[in-house]
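wait is this the right file?? whatever heres the structure
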């Protein structure tokens, strides 16, 4: 309502709000892809590690108890003696087993007790680590095993380091992919929130 002698007063029209800048979807998509690649890489590394360890167990040299056989070993390598029998991953050897290993010169090899619990159930073989020994020279060693039946003595390179790699490598790949992808996504969102909205020109 206007009064005589009083100038009319009007409120300024509110300035139109500019639309908010769109998030950088390209960077967010890249972060998601990196995370997925990490997951796929971790699964692939785990499968490859499991396959390699199964192949290692398959290549163990074996002698059925009671019995004897030759072992072809390399100089400077440490080997592990495993007892294979049904239930080896959850129980001790059911019957006493004695074995003796001699080097290519006929000398008895000294073995020491395995310092950790290690067992496997891979490729149809179920075994438990018993002891380790060092091969001082290349050549054919001889193993003589005595004791209860239904047990096989297997000799090969220890699986401890292989098991650790099979677990740690996939975890590392998956973790790195997750961290890098998450950093990309968070960085993109933070930069989006800090960026000023685009201005519009009004006539």
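ok assuming it is, sequence goes like this
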């Amino acid at each position: 309502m206007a009064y005589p002698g009083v100038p009319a007063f009007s409120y300024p029209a509110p300035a139109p709000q500019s639309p908010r800048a769109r998030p950088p979807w390209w960077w967010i998509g890249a972060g998601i892809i990196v995370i997925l690649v990490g997951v796929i890489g971790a699964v692939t590394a785990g499968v490859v590690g499991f396959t390699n360890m199964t192949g290692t167990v398959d290549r163990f040299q074996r002698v059925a108890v009671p019995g004897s056989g030759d072992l072809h070993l390399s100089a400077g390598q440490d080997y592990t003696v495993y007892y294979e029998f049904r239930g080896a991953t959850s129980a001790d050897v059911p019957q006493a087993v004695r074995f003796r290993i001699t080097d290519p010169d006929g000398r008895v090899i000294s073995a020491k007790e395995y310092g950790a619990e290690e067992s496997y159930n891979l490729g149809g073989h179920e075994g438990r680590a018993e002891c380790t020994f060092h091969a001082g020279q290349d050549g054919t060693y001889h193993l003589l095993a005595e004791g209860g039946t239904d047990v096989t003595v297997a000799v090969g390179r220890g699986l401890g380091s292989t098991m650790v790699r099979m677990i740690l490598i996939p975890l590392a790949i998956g973790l790195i992919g997750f961290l890098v992808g998450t950093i990309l996504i968070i960085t993109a969102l933070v930069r989006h929130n800090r960026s000023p909205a685009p201005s519009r020109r009004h006539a």
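The longest strand covers residues 125-135. so i think its the right one actually
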